[in-house]
# Entry
Amino acid sequence: MDIVIDFFPPSVTVGSTPATAQFGIRIMKKMKIIRVFISKTNATPNDDLVRINTLPSLFDEADEIHISVTFTWDIARAEQLAEHWKFVAPVKVGGPAYNEKGGDFVAGMYMKNGYVITSRGCNNRCWFCSVPQREGYELRELPIVDGYIITDDNLLACSEKHINSVFEMLKRQPQRPQFNGGLEAKLLTQELANKLYELKPVSMFFAYDTVSDYEPLIQAGKLLREAGFKKNHKITRCYVLIGYQGDTFAKAEKRLLQAWEAGFFPMSMLYRDQEGKTLKDWKLFQRQWSYSTVAGAILKNYEK
# Structure
């Protein structure tokens, strides 16, 4: 494990010699934590202490093992892995799948460097979303850590002061920002749209999950174009929830095309239940609308 030297303030005495009494030195051990993830995504860290859905090797050594579980349907596999990793070091199993309330964001720990969370929770009560049950029903603003891929649950629901601080942080980054966590259309104002345009983002994701999202999405599209964003450009994208009980291919396609007409590049988000199951035949439909090239071809034909 790594050694970290920490300096006490002069009022603290360590040892008996005048030197250490005047300015104490504390030797601490930095914990070596192996993080195990069930599957790999774009956000998964890639440092030497990361393992993906694997058993320990003879060479694995650590002070603790953290098994991070994002989806409820991966819990069984995570607990299987825990039984094997406990022979290396004490194991902690947790993550969003366990409805654990998140604390302050630690860069690079459970998400790749560059990803950042500046707030947790959402004030909405969407029937399909587990965020309020996990994080509570009030949004919490966190200390802002440098990064350029914003993955907050609902950034625009934060205070004006916090949003401005996040934008100022993004201006310092060498990379153009990405708003992957989602921006709520009904909270967008012309002032915010203008500030987003000044940041020159690579991507922004909005959402069309329920019928009530449609009119705000149309208005958000107008505000973004007024700010300078081009209509239907892949910078301004919209996730469209599909495949839930009572949905049909025709209804889903209509919503996807409505998002396009509102000025956003549509991308399908397939609904899964607690066990990770989806309704039969929806995966193929979803695949057509989740890849930019395929969706682009469909939309091109639609415009003819």
Observations:
- The radius of gyration is 23 Å.
